[in-house]
Design brief:
There is one protein chain. By secondary structure, the protein is of the alpha+beta class. 19% of the residues lie in helices and 43% in strands. Strands 3-2-1-6 form a 4-stranded mixed β-sheet, covered by helices on one side. It starts with a strand and ends with a strand.
Amino acid sequence: MTELVYQIVEHDGGWAYEVDGSFSETFPTREAAHRAAARAAAEQRIPGETAGIVYEDPSGGWHNEIDAGDDRPATRVDD
């Protein structure tokens, strides 16, 4: 299972959370960035809806799959 780690970092004159190389908006305090990271991490774990996926592979073949929407990553917030 994939694990996403939200790290609280100084960023752009304030504080942000960083996940896999991407930064959130900037928050005025470390505590505010931590609260936002905890909220975002919790939202990542919520299952989505079942959806159909249609895609073409490199050889030109078409595929139909069903994604149950319950393959969610584990998350944690590190300071």
